[in-house]
Amino acid sequence: MPTVTVDGEKAFEVEAGKKLVLAIEDAGIDIMHKCGGNARCTTCRVEVLAGEVPPPEAAETERLAREADLAPNIRLSCQIRVEDDVWVAVLQRSSVTGVPAGTRPQD
Ligand code: FES
């Protein structure tokens, strides 16, 4: 099983193919997902620090292109299915923004 490491917090194994946003949330880590995992809000964004993630599909590429000055390793965790070990930083948290995390994305 792949291992997800959330920078400075926790490392945990996840079932291959699980959405990264759900893997992080199910590990008890605060991560936002305002649009419910539909590649619309970008609140689920993570910085991929190391490891392998699948390349972005069209919906993710198009949505991230509308944001200014994003590094190429910023990705939408709702659009990533974990297949290999990956090390990420969670960039938007409900506990920081004071906004509810949003509807849980579908599996
Ligand atoms: S873009 Fe909204 S939850 Fe991922």
Automatic annotation (TrEMBL):
<dbReference type="Pfam" id="PF00111">
    <property type="entry name" value="Fer2"/>
</dbReference>
<protein>
    <submittedName>
        <fullName>2Fe-2S iron-sulfur cluster-binding protein</fullName>
    </submittedName>
</protein>
<dbReference type="InterPro" id="IPR036010">
    <property type="entry name" value="2Fe-2S_ferredoxin-like_sf"/>
</dbReference>
<keyword id="KW-0411">Iron-sulfur</keyword>
<dbReference type="InterPro" id="IPR012675">
    <property type="entry name" value="Beta-grasp_dom_sf"/>
</dbReference>
<dbReference type="InterPro" id="IPR001055">
    <property type="entry name" value="Adrenodoxin-like"/>
</dbReference>
<keyword id="KW-0408">Iron</keyword>
<feature type="domain" description="2Fe-2S ferredoxin-type">
    <location>
        <begin position="2"/>
        <end position="94"/>
    </location>
</feature>
<keyword id="KW-0479">Metal-binding</keyword>
<comment type="similarity">
    <text>Belongs to the adrenodoxin/putidaredoxin family.</text>
</comment>
<dbReference type="InterPro" id="IPR001041">
    <property type="entry name" value="2Fe-2S_ferredoxin-type"/>
</dbReference>
<keyword id="KW-0001">2Fe-2S</keyword>
